[in-house]
Design a protein that fits this description.
This protein has nine helices and eleven strands. The strands form two sheets. Strands 1, 2, 5, 6, 8, 9, 10 and 11 form an eight-stranded mixed β-sheet that branches. A three-stranded mixed β-sheet has the order 3-4-7, with no helix packed on it. Helix 1 runs antiparallel to helix 3. The protein is globular, with a radius of gyration of 17 Å.
C-alpha cells in the first residue's frame, strides 16, 4: 500500500487513546487492521491504550489480547491499598499481568517500537516513556489521580497520560511514524487548567498523515466491563468504516 503524495514506503503508527474500560475498543481496532493486512510498526498508548499497545508491541496474538481483555477485571490492574494515601489502588498488580508478555521486558527490546504516555504532575506536560521497564511505564500511564498512586521516577511525579495527551499521535510521530492511525475513545480533558490538547488533536485530524478512528461509544461506561463485548465490536466496526473511506490513500507498510 502507498499513501497518495508520499514517495516510498511509510512507517505506520498506531496511537491508542485512553478511556478506562472503553479501551476494549482497541481490540476491535487491532482485529480490523489485521483483517485488512495493515500491521503498524510503531505503537503509542495512553492509559488503557498503553496496556493494549504494549501487548501488541510485544507481538502477542490479537486473539490472545482479546481473550485477556474479555476476562480482565480490576484485579488485572491494581489491588486495594490497606491504607489509601495517594490512591485507592496499588498498580503493582499490573506487573503480574506483564508476566504474560514473558517477564517484564524493556520497552526498547519489544519487537515493535512502543511508548506509553504519562503526565508529569510537576510540569503538567506529557512524558513519552519509550525506554526502561514496561511495567513501570504502564503503571505511570494508567495512574488516574485519586485511584492509583503516582509513579515517582527521579524528579518526575507521573500520573495518567490522559491529563496531557489522551490521544498520543505526537508520541507515535516521535517514535518514527510517518502515517498514524489515531483511535480516540473520549474527548480530551479540557476542563483541567493548563491542559489544552483538544486544539492540537483538531489540527492533527486535518493532516493527510493521520487517519482518525472514532468508535461510537455513547452509553458505554469507562468504569464498567459489562459492555466489553459490544465495545470491542464498536472499535472493529469504526475501523472498517474509516478504512473504507481511506481506501484510495492507504500507506505501504514499512
Amino acid at each position: 500500500m502507498s499513501q497518495a503524495g508520499t514517495a516510498g514506503p511509510v512507517v505506520i503508527g498506531l496511537a491508542l487513546g485512553g478511556g478506562g474500560a472503553l479501551g476494549a475498543a482497541h481490540v476491535g481496532v487491532l482485529k480490523a487492521l489485521q483483517e485488512c493486512g495493515i500491521l503498524p510498526s510503531v505503537v503509542a498508548g495512553t492509559s488503557a491504550g498503553s496496556l493494549i499497545g504494549a501487548a501488541y508491541a510485544a507481538r502477542m496474538p490479537v486473539s490472545r489480547i482479546e481473550e485477556l481483555v474479555r476476562a480482565a477485571g480490576w484485579s488485572a490492574f491494581g489491588r486495594l491499598r490497606p491504607s489509601p494515601r495517594l490512591g485507592l489502588l496499588d498498580s503493582t498488580a499490573l506487573l503480574d499481568t506483564i508476566d504474560r508478555l514473558g517477564g517484564e521486558p524493556l520497552i526498547e527490546d519489544l519487537p515493535r517500537r512502543f511508548a506509553a504516555v504519562a503526565t508529569d504532575l510537576r510540569t503538567r506536560q506529557a512524558v513519552v516513556l519509550d525506554r526502561g521497564r514496561v511495567g513501570i511505564a504502564l503503571r505511570a500511564s494508567i495512574a488516574v489521580p485519586g485511584m492509583f498512586a503516582p509513579v515517582i521516577t527521579g524528579e518526575r511525579v507521573l500520573v495518567d497520560g490522559g491529563l496531557a495527551a489522551n490521544l498520543p499521535i505526537d508520541a507515535a510521530r516521535q517514535l518514527g511514524a510517518t502515517f498514524t492511525i489515531g483511535v480516540r475513545l473520549r474527548p480530551e480533558w479540557e476542563h483541567i487548567p493548563v491542559v489544552r490538547s483538544a486544539q492540537r488533536i483538531a489540527a492533527l485530524e486535518k493532516s493527510p498523515e493521520v487517519l482518525m478512528v472514532r468508535p461510537h461509544l455513547n452509553g458505554f461506561s469507562q468504569w464498567s466491563r459489562a459492555d466489553v463485548p459490544r465495545i470491542i465490536e464498536a472499535g472493529y466496526t469504526a475501523t472498517l468504516a474509516s478504512l473504507e473511506t481511506w481506501k484510495d490513500q492507504q500507506p505501504r507498510v514499512a
